[in-house]
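Re: protoporphyrin IX containing FE structure - here you go.
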Amino acid sequence: MSNNKESLINLLTQKPWEPAQAKVDNLHEGKTFNLHVGKLGLRYIMVVSTIMFCLFIVTYADRMVYDDWIRMPEPFLLWINSLILVISSLFFIRIQLASKKNNFEKVRRELVLIGVLAIIFLIGQLLVWQNMIEAGYYVSGSPANGYFYVFTTLHGLHLLGGLIYWVMTIKKVWKLDDSIVIRKAKHTVELCAIYWHFLLAVWIVLFGLMLFS
Amino acid sequence: MIVALLVLLVTLGSVAFHLWSPWWWSEIASNWVGMDNTILLSFWITGAVFVAIGLFTAYCIWKYKYNKNRRADYEPENSKLEWFLTIITSIGVIALLAPGLIVWNNFVTVPKGAYEIEVVGQQWAWMYRLPGKDGVLGTTDIKNIDDDNIFGMNTDDPYGLDDILIDADDLHLLKDQAVKLNLRALDVLHDFYVPQFRAKMDMVPGMITYYWFTPIRTGEFEILCAEYCGTGHYAMLGYVIVDEQEDYDEWLSEQMTFEEIMASNGKSDLIKLALNKKNDL
Amino acid sequence: MAADSYDDVAKNKESIPELEVAPQDLYHAKSFWTKYIFCQDAKVIGIQYALTAAAIGMVGLVSSWLMRMQIAFPGVIPMDAAAYYQLVTMHGMIMVVYLLTALFLGGFGNFLIPLMVGARDMVFPYVNMVSYWVFFIAVLILGASYFVPGGPTGAGWTLYPPQAITSGTPGGDGLGIVLMLVSLAVFVIGFTMGGLNYVITILQARTRGMTLMRMPLTIWGILTATVLALFAFPALFVAGIMMTLDNMLGTSFFMPAIVQFGERLTYDGGSPILFQHLFWFFGHPEVYIVALPAFGIVSDLISVHARKNIFGYRMMVWAIVIIGALSFIVWAHHMYVAGMNPWFGFFFATTTLIIAVPTAIKVYNWVLTLWRGNIKLTIPMLFSIAFIITFVNGGLTGLFLGNVAVDVPLSDTYFVVAHFHMVMGIAPVLVILGSIYHWFPLITGRFLNERLGRIHFWVTFIGSYSIYFPMHYLGFMGVTRRYFEVFEGDNFTYSITGINQFITVAALITGAAQFLFFYNIIVSSKFGKKAGKNPWKACSLEWQTPDVPPTHGNFGKELPVVYRWPYDFSVPGADEDYITQDTPPSAVANAKAEQT
Ligand code: HEM
Ligand SMILES: [Cu+2]
Ligand SMILES: [Cu+2]
């Protein structure tokens, strides 16, 4: 009987020394949320990086109002790259469904595709950089350029980190010996998918910010 | 026993040190007596709390020393007592905050008619600028700075021509005249601080900060840079000399205006635009 | 009646949803490398953190000696202004980040969390191990900055631009500042990995019966501090990245147009104040990241050694949580005279003084725990009492500095130095020392030498109080901080030479006493008096392990089941003056608390 539905106020006003409370408490499972630790861990990481990006956005907003702010062009390639991210997220939804149905053949096939798409995206971003530099938009040119490079780098690094986890996921779904392993692998696929969707969301926010400011 | 004594001694010793310490603020030379008074008020309130907690702790240590035949009280909480303490504390905090905010309000509200002066900080020296006859400080821009124009005066601004530029660490002020210091830094953060005036504010490159005060007694007061500004921070000193009218006028008559400085350097052509505009005024 | 609750659990077994993962499959060390170096056991990682932090802390301590020598006896140890500022900076940064943060969360957090909540280990042992090694790399990078041309940065621990990355500052135009920023970024990454473990272990891996409100306050303190770090460290990270770019690639995030030494730099348009906001959005919570674990730990020490439950446990928990939340809306009290919009002063002064209320409640409750207690004046208790005095002192001077109008004359003087050393230097260090005396018998199975310990206590407490108490009065006179030469100002009311020499001598003695302490640790871990099981008669779980010191997996075959809060001391009617958390109700039928 975990007390998941208990409100925070109720929780914090418990008097643990009272015998009546003790009887309830003795039955407590020791978990706060009915969630797998992996999922919680992923949420933790997503919260930290969300805070980081939010702080960048706050400074961006602060910096934008100064008059040396020069808008950046939006290279067409960025739209294509964004599209690639959207497509990988769509594929990941398919993977999630397949994994639920234990269709691991499909999971494997499409996971590989995800990796390929991610690498294409990263190369695409590098190409964008190259175009920008050739067009004379250096990091130090205007703060808008600075932010563009910072945002793309950090997002790219997040994706690289994701690729490490993706390798672990691939390893797991390729070796499915018994039911425990299968359960773990499904779990890993799920986490990997959530992270990919998260990165898409981050990208949309950052891209939107750079487009509309 | 000895531990209780220790706590007692530390508590009372601190109070004794406070009462007899020869290290205390020097006599105030500005209108900010309110700051001193808020500090004194804070001393009374926090001092009372400090002594109360110290004495009570000492008492508990002495009274409730371990005895294996005795048991401690079993009392998980006492809401009444805790709420009572919370409320008392809140009252104490309000008593500190309210006067503090009133003084702060005075500090940030510059009175009309305050004499505007500019203080410029750079590694590691001070410069000053007075508004001159027209009572207006000319505009400046850091991009104008060069060897001929160390203040970065805008060379097309007629209001700047009569500004008095003082490239020295010492500044004279007139007693009983409210001044607003406009603070500017050329390179890094600095802070114009004179202990006897109590007030201070950082100078930030890229913006103009300010504060105001009224000197209330004559004398020479040392300026200390109060915001770390690099290797020479500790040597960024100077003097503010508060004068009666006569001495002040004498000092003032020895200073040169921007126009005069440019003329004496033979660079008057640089400020042609401003001179023309001045004639149009 | 109470006794059958255990059977209830058994009966309810079917209705309890099956755990999603099988009880943790523990990692088993196979070689020396995996047992002591790349170890995944949180206890070992905790000790690794503690030793690394202590080692780099030595550098911080010795730096403070050298600074004090320069202040009081200039010339005795030859140094120039640049060297002095490098010492100040490295001292401050090391003490705050690499010593205290790492020691409280990495050291105590790792060692105590699994033991106190009744877990076999952290939930992600591998990540935990990596976290330590990332921290270690951060320390190495920091250390490396001593050896680059130009030396380490002398920008002050606040690293304010433009000064931090320009040539008027030691290390500002060289690698010093870069390595500092990189080291901090690496630290933040490592810390995030550690924090992930602390939070999730506390939330999800507690043993049966361990509700949140049955956790010792130590755990509450560490949990809240880690959550603060989760929100605060990204700000440091962001500020660090942007400043690195300003420095290396010439962007102008924080750098305005500047004329330095008559030369115009290429920057334009950035805002130095923006950096300060980011820095203090990290920096203020950082103060509480250090303070909250200390609050929690000292509560437990006082309770155990006064043989009395902590007074007002619920208020204590609320206060920790409220202080943690409020600490995010007070940051600009460090910037009252930084040139920000003066109207912010009203808001931040108010929020800052509001924080004083829950903080004061904590103090009252510590003292009220002593009241009517049965106080054993053991060394941990002595340090706890010393903590109360110094913390009260430092907290009260915080009311001066938080009250914006009072801060105007006092900020950037020695009053500030005295205040923050009292409240976040001395006070938490006293807790650390006290808790080492307290938990040493658990870590090694032996007591620290009592005699040396008492000497250590007296010297440390009286010494550090004599360093910092008089220093406030220098601040009143207007003696500014970060001065390479602290000279007799023209208008000081009284000579400051004598008092500065007194402070320096006190600092040298106090510092030296710490070496006595290290000696004690080394010798006692081999030859100390054997402690046996639960020597302090404490209630919390970490003392209830089958082996002392606890071995791999902590609790032997079966995890303990928790039946009560960790403060059942001196329960009326009980045979002993303590009932451990894992004592089932049937075993203490007489105790009054068990009768409804
Ligand atoms: C024996 C113990 C210590 C002594 C003698 C000592 C001494 C000093 C001195 C002389 C300064 C320079 C003050 C100035 O000129 O502004 C300083 C700064 C500082 N200390 Fe300590 N300290 C000690 C322990 C600690 C501890 C435990 C901490 C942990 C919080 C700490 C944190 C700092 C910080 C943050 C600064 C500011 C650095 C800066 O201005 O950039 N100190 N200390
Ligand atoms: Cu300075
Ligand atoms: Cu703060």
